[in-house]
Amino acid sequence: MRANGDISRTYNMADEAGENKFAQFSFTGEEYTGRVRHRILAGADFGVKKFWGDFSVLAKDSLVTKPLNVYNPVYGIAASAIPIPDRSKSVKVRAGGQNYVNSVSYSSLYVHDEMAFLEEKLRLSLGLRYTIAETVGKTALADRTDKAFTPRVGLSYSLDKSTSVYGLFDQSFVPQAGTDWEGNAFKPVRGNDLEAGIKKEWGAGKWISTLSAYQIKRKNALVEDVEHSTSTTKFQTQLGETTSKGIEFDITGEIVKGLNVNANYALTDSKISKDTKEENIGNITPNTAKHTANAWLTYRLQQGALKGLGLTGSVQGIFDRAIGTTKESNFKNYLRTDAGISYQSGKYSISLMVNNLLDNRKLLTAGSTTAKNASIPESVGYYTYIVEARRNFRMGVTYKF
What we know:
Order of helices and strands: EEEEEEHEEEEEEEEEEEEEEEEE
Mean pLDDT: 89
Number of strands: 23
Distance between the termini: 58 Å
Largest sheet: 15 strands, antiparallel
């Protein structure tokens, strides 16, 4: 985009094809060694995910005589000026001329044992997974094979019949398809998760609450490559390491007969902790929010002529969001309300859910930034965003056999 607001417009092909095949098997069993109870799970997972894409540029700055100006837009393109895409060949063939061809296959073996001690008051979980993943792209640079052991350890203890505390350590390994702007294959995303919390039942089980604290470290997370992406070509890059720390609180319960509430709040501090570019260290992890909260309230009539009639309302909020490269929150807050009505009678139920009840058309669901185009001296950087869908509804009819 130029400094005066003129922005180039392109007309692109956007055809995609995918093939996914998965298989898994497992077995479970329960055994005792003395007074220790074992619940054993073992199995294997297999998967192949293939992708082809044709995102050819069919026209650039040729559909109109003047560029679109974001400060004074003039809309309208003659239908005769829009080129007709050539789809005589399959997208798999067309994708061969581009970089949007990749395949990810994996094989995984796992075993897990949950042990119970002290009359099942103390529980220890031990798990281990071994994964082999192979990524195949268009070129040799896009090919790679990775192998990883990922353990999982969990410990929980029941303080009494209604209160338990727990701790968890977990590692993750997620292969990534695609390449960066230089054609190099993406490394798998690896993570270390630490979590501890307490769960409590209140009011003879009518209320359940959970308070937890966590730290999540991720290596090689994929984000948009602002430095090399343009208005016509988008690239991704991998971060060195991100560290997310936070607390989360959940509560669910019945206020009075038929009136239930479910509420959640999360406070997250997520930043880049390691990177090859020193200036990135300390930046907020792109596409994260510091505060996330939501609450659902439901009420269903228990008697009378309207017995079975239910009402639902919810509020969802996301605050202090960040996109792109920044050390401060730079994206608008998000607050959405939904509502619904339903009716149940025997095995039948009918429901109507209205999303974005207030029809707020300024809600932004996501955003990104684009650096200035070095080939255009007067160009400037800009950001783009996706707007939440206007008020919409979903109706459902259910029958239980």
